[in-house]
Design brief:
By secondary structure, the chain is an alpha/beta fold. Helices cover 40% and strands 19% of the residues. An eight-stranded mixed β-sheet has the order 3-4-2-5-1-6-7-8, with helices on both faces.
Length: 252
């Protein structure tokens, strides 16, 4: 399975991505979690040790220069659009409690988009992971399709948009699906998050009637407590984790 998770900023997609990765791992799969959000928090959410700082791949200037032929920041230069990356995952991931993790990092954009060594390198690496790796891949993305291109879109098994019961979140979900359809992503799903009552669940159903909804996660203050006190989500928030495992079984 290759799964991309996105949604409006602050909607809880990193928490969901971490729990989904854990659910697949506990089901016996080899899991590679990919943090493709510039505001990288997946390592902390998966409780990787603070003693092992992770350098985002976009900051690996020497590596990107070697593979693309141009040092990052050298705009206007000619560089490779298809750098070799197939040997890199095992060298770049870190592993904790059986879950592998790669942190992509962000790219400083000047203007409306970036065709630069960093962005090309990251996109090529994501493409390799989706098309050629055999692990379950769970990608925690920003609110968009930044790291996905047409070459990888149809290989994504599930594009999951996390939604809160609010109009801004609903609007973001519609915009993301529009962008996803534009590059040929065939399966787009919704997961409702931080649901307090039946009325909020119905709000999402009413405003996204044409979306395939995988399920709903109840609001739980233990999720906040786990983040503040650095508890393992799956141990401290067992009800939420149980709900994510049910959602996992609905992904096809």
């Amino acid at each position: 399975m290759k799964i991309a998770v996105t949604g409006k900023g602050g909607v809880g997609k990193t928490t969901f991505s971490a729990l989904l990765a854990k659910a697949y791992h506990d089901s016996g799969y080899t899991v590679l979690a990919v943090d493709a959000d510039p505001d990288a928090n997946l390592a902390a959410t998966l409780r990787f040790p603070d003693s092992e700082p992770i350098t985002p791949i976009s900051h690996m200037v020497k590596l990107i220069g070697e593979r693309t032929g141009v040092q990052p920041g050298a705009y206007g230069s000619i560089f490779k659009l298809n750098p070799t990356v197939d040997d890199l995952p095992e060298k770049l991931w870190v592993e904790h409690n059986g879950i592998r993790l790669m942190v992509m990092g962000g790219v400083n954009k000047g203007g409306g988009g970036c065709v630069c060594p960093e962005s090309v390198f990251l996109r090529t690496l994501i493409q390799h992971l989706i098309l050629h790796r055999m692990e379950v891949i769970v990608i925690d993305m920003e609110a968009g399709i930044e790291h996905l291109g047409r070459a990888t879109a149809q290989a994504v098994d599930a594009f999951i948009i996390l939604v809160e019961p609010g109009r801004r979140s609903i609007e973001t979900a519609r915009r993301i699906r529009f962008l996803a359809e534009g590059i040929g992503i065939p399966r787009t799903y919704v997961v409702g998050n931080r649901i307090r009552n039946a009325e909020e669940e119905e709000f999402i159903r009413e405003h996204l009637p044409d979306f395939d909804i995988l399920g709903f996660l109840a609001y739980n203050e233990k999720v906040i407590e786990a983040d503040q006190r650095k508890y393992c989500l799956w141990e401290h928030c067992k009800d939420v984790y149980a709900a994510v495992k049910i959602i996992k079984e609905r992904i096809r």
